[in-house]
Amino acid sequence: MPRFFIDAPLHAGALLDLPEAVVRHVQVLRLKAGDPLTFFNGMGGEFPAVLTSLEKRHAVAQLGGHDPREAETPYRITLAQGIAGGDKMDWLIEKAIELGVADIQPLATERSVIRLDGERAAKRVAHWQALAQAACEQCGRNRVPRILPIRPIATWLRDQDTVTSYAWRVLLSPRADEGFDTLPPQAPSQPGVLLFGPEGGLAPQEETLAREAGFTAIRLGGRILRTETAGMAVLAALAARWGGW
């Protein structure tokens, strides 16, 4: 059944005028009056609905009762990701959301290929947030992860209020002595953060800052993984280990 994110309050039984972007999507899917669809607004649960009318630029749906179902993991992970080049960051965000991350913190690092600031940074974050909404539509999540504002990694690591809000902190590094088995066998009850570098990884001084901020460095075997592979490998392994499937 088609699912759509609506950035507005939703109420059981209400008639919903669909936003223009959703109307276009409904038309692309060749839906017609009487077809079922589902809406969610990121506040939890979803609303089954029926398309009651569809015109060229306007569509209305009748909401049914609130369904409280959720597809969240039993743990909360923020993915702190050094900004990757090309379309890698788009891919990373989409797949990380499918794998259950709670938030994504983009970080400007020494080895980041793309440099974003000011208006360009704001536009890119808005683009990534739209990708997050679309990923939730596809994968069945009813709570949309936040794409946090881009921050320089050194500033972020020195922000004690932010970093210490995570009960556990893990850095992926090919130079680490510890392996994946260092992580606890049971899902932590408190939120945590996974830190990954961009192409080429984090610079040595960035890893040093992370360790000083309380991050535990781990490695994944003897192979060097691409940035777009590493995070997804860890998230998938944690889902299997901690009951995220």
TrEMBL record:
Family annotation (Pfam families): Methyltrans_RNA, PUA_4
Domain Ribosomal RNA small subunit methyltransferase E methyltransferase span(s) in chain numbering: 72-238
Enzyme superclass (EC): transferase
Record domain Ribosomal RNA small subunit methyltransferase E PUA-like: where: 18-62
NCBIfam families named in the record: PRK11713.1-5, RsmE family RNA methyltransferase
Function: Specifically methylates the N3 position of the uracil ring of uridine 1498 (m3U1498) in 16S rRNA. Acts on the fully assembled 30S ribosomal subunit.
Name recorded for this polypeptide: Ribosomal RNA small subunit methyltransferase E
Species in which this protein is naturally found: Pandoraea pulmonicola
